Amino acid sequence: MKANTLILSAGLLGIAATAFAQAYGPEDEGRRFNDGTRVVCSNVEVQKNSKDPNRIAGTATGAVLGGLLGSQVGGGKGKKLATVGGAVAGGAAGRTIQGNRQIDKGDRVVEKRCVRR
User: Fold this and answer.
1) Is 83:74 a contact under the CB 8 Å cutoff?
2) Is 68 in contact with 86 (CB distance < 8 Å)?
3) pLDDT tens by residue, 76-103
4) 3-state secondary structure of 28
5) pLDDT (tens digit, 9 = 90+) per residue, 8-33?
6) What pLDDT does 77 receive?
7) Residues 98 and 55: beta-carbon distance below 8 Å
8) Which helix (H) or strand (E) segment is 39 a member of?
9) Are 90 and 66 spatial neighbours (Cβ–Cβ below 8 Å)?
10) What is the DSSP string of 42-73?
11) Residues near 60 by Cβ (< 8 Å), separated by ≥ 6?
12) Which in 5, 33, 49, 92 has the greatest CB count within 10 A?
């Protein structure tokens, strides 16, 4: 019985906090409050409607291709290092390329978001 009351109270507090949350816009940037906080804005990349929001396909494809290219270099331990290095670099490149294509297609946009800190 006490657990149900505790859960209900926590839920109501969460709803109340959300109800009193205030949204700030770019026009509020720099605004200061009596408690020492102020409104800070930053540009944030926002996902719209992409099928692969985490860019997993680009990362995986780049890692495989980079690993294959890296395995063609050196011999012994150097070959292993080149394979791993190629996979890491290829994964990073693939993620970046996919992200740029998503931006070009309008799947990802940059918005200015403001919060009180």
Assistant:
1) no
2) yes
3) 888 999 999 999 999 999 999 998 888 7
4) helix
5) 555 555 554 444 568 888 898 999 99
6) 86
7) yes
8) strand 39-47
9) yes
10) EEEEEE-S-S-TT-HHHHHHHHHHHHHHHTTS
11) 91, 94
12) 92
- Write the pLDDT tens digit of every residue in 26-62: 898 999 999 999 999 999 888 776 778 788 999 999 9
Output b/e per residue, 86-105; b: 16+ Cβ within 10 A: bbebbbebbbeebbeebeee
Contact 117, 30 (CB under 8 A): no
Distance of alpha carbon 112 from alpha carbon 56, whole angstroms? 25
Helix (H) or strand (E) holding 105: helix 77-105
For residues 71 and 79, the answer to whether their CB atoms sit within 8 Å is yes
Closest CA to 114 of 48, 45, 33, 43: 43
Our measurement of the distance from residue 1's CA atom to the centroid of its chain's CA atoms, rounded to an integer in Å, reads 41
